[in-house]
Specification:
CATH topology of the largest domain: Nucleoside Triphosphate Pyrophosphohydrolase
CATH superfamily of the largest domain: Nucleoside Triphosphate Pyrophosphohydrolase
Radius of gyration: 19 Å
Helix content: 25-40%
Shape: elongated
Number of strands: 8
Number of helices: 5
Number of domains: 2
CATH architecture of the largest domain: Alpha-Beta Complex
Distance between the termini: 8 Å
Structural class: alpha+beta
Length: 209
């Protein structure tokens, strides 16, 4: 997908916020600090104008993101059993997705997906292949305000049993032609199509944006 696929106001607000965050990291003069803080307020005002989020809470969240602005990492795992894919039902939107979440600082990407799958589904897995690396913020529903990349792994279940968590309501396997309502900014048709393609073509290279 292209830059124009994103909501224009979100693209503008994100860019202004990232420039402000980076500027505040290196600003040494009071005038520069005030100017970059104002840019951050403008980004918050744009978001507040298009959502039900509070400007002051947005600014507080923006200020909690120190340092040079870089994308976050979202990891997702595809586990296949008898031709069906494992999905979890998210408590936040009641929809389904491949288990996963934010990578933790200090973890290898493979460690992050092992941890996330265990926490959200109850299964122990071994990552076998990287299916794709995606820009998670392209499309009509971005993963959240901050720019993020999504890494999808093909994993093998090696233990555990289905168990929901504080973040998930249910865990189940579904046929690719009989999917429940998807939490599409976590797992979408493109991700699932690539999973299927890798199942049919063992040597298929990883997809990437």
């Amino acid at each position: 997908m292209t830059e124009t696929d994103m909501l224009p106001w979100l693209r503008w607000a994100r860019e202004i916020q990232s420039l402000s965050q980076t500027g505040l990291t290196y600003a040494t003069k009071d005038y520069d600090v005030q100017r970059y803080r104002r840019f951050m307020e403008i980004a918050a005002e744009i978001v507040q104008n298009h959502t039900d989020l509070d400007k002051n809470q947005l600014i507080e969240n923006f200020l909690a993101q120190p340092g040079y602005a870089t994308p976050k990492i979202d990891v997702r795992g595809a586990m296949i059993q008898d031709g069906k894919i494992l999905l979890v039902q998210e408590r936040l939107d009641m929809c389904w997705c491949m288990p996963g979440g934010w990578a933790e600082v200090g973890e290898l990407p493979s460690q992050s997906i092992i941890r996330e799958i265990r926490e959200e589904s109850g299964f122990a897995v071994a990552p076998r292949k990287c299916i794709g690396v995606y820009d998670a913020n392209r499309g009509p529903r971005p993963v959240e305000f901050y720019h993020a990349y999504k890494i999808v792994f093909l994993c093998e279940i090696i233990g555990g049993q289905a168990r929901p968590s504080e973040e998930t309501l249910a865990v189940d396997f579904f046929g690719f032609d009989d999917l429940p309502p998807l939490s599409r900014f976590r797992t979408n048709d493109r991700h699932l199509a690539e999973v299927q393609a890798h199942l049919m073509e063992e040597l298929r290279p990883a997809a990437f944006d």
